[in-house]
Amino acid sequence: MVAVTESDLKELKDLIQAQTAQLTVMQQNITDLQKNVTDLQKDVVDLKFSNERIEATLQSQQLLIQKIPDLAEKVGELKNWRTRCRRFPPTFQPSVKQIGLVFVSAVVSSIFSGTIGGIIGWLIRGPKV
Predict the structure, then answer these.
(1) Which 3 state secondary structure label does DSSP give 128?
(2) Which pLDDT score, from 0 to 100, does residue 124 have?
(3) CA dist., res. 66 & res. 114, Å (int)
(4) Which of 29-33, 58-62, 85-89, 105-109 has the lowest mean pLDDT?
(5) Confidence check: pLDDT of 35 > 80
(6) C-beta separation of 99 from 105 below 8 A
(7) How far apart are CA 91 and CA 109, in angstroms?
(8) pTM for the predicted model, two decimal places
(9) Environment class of 110 (CB within 10 Å of its CB; exposed 0-12, middle 13-18, buried 19+)
(10) Contacts (Cβ under 8 Å, ≥6 apart) of 111
(11) Who contacts 110 (Cβ-Cβ below 8 Å, separation ≥6)?
């Protein structure tokens, strides 16, 4: 009986040592996992900070982004203006007839608007101070 008991005790001792070794490995794994979780938390904080910086940059550039359609429209108008200007030679000079026509139309429109008409009426009635 003593031989059986000694072999049983040896098996139990080996089993306890194996369990102790497994517990040590598990504790090391838990420590490593905790370290990894801490590192991941730091990475998440860094990503949140980077995300906030990107959002702030987008907010500051939002006004510029909203102006893009207006700028595109102005570029289109500039293209149209340049194509219209290409129809005339660069040495295009208005003639005397064109200048006279502009002057006459300006006088007639001012008469109808009342500016020169009021002056002419004032002169016809006699200048009263």
Answers:
(1) coil
(2) 73
(3) 44
(4) 85-89
(5) yes
(6) no
(7) 30
(8) 0.40
(9) middle
(10) 117, 120
(11) 116, 117
Measured between alpha carbons, how far is residue 97 from residues 53, 89, 103 in Å?
64, 19, 10
Structure token pair of residue 10:
């040896």
pLDDT given at position 97 = 76
Distance CA 127, CA 120 (A): 10
Which residue is listed with tokens 């959002």? Answer: 55
Residue 116 neighbours by CB under 8 Å, 6+ apart:
107, 110
Q: Are 107 and 116 within 8 A, CB to CB?
A: yes
Q: Are 95 and 102 in contact (CB under 8 A)?
A: no
Question: Residue 111 burial by CB count (10 A; 0-12/13-18/19+): exposed, middle or buried?
Answer: middle
DSSP 3-state assignment of 12? Answer: helix
The Cα–Cα gap between 119 and 111 comes to 9
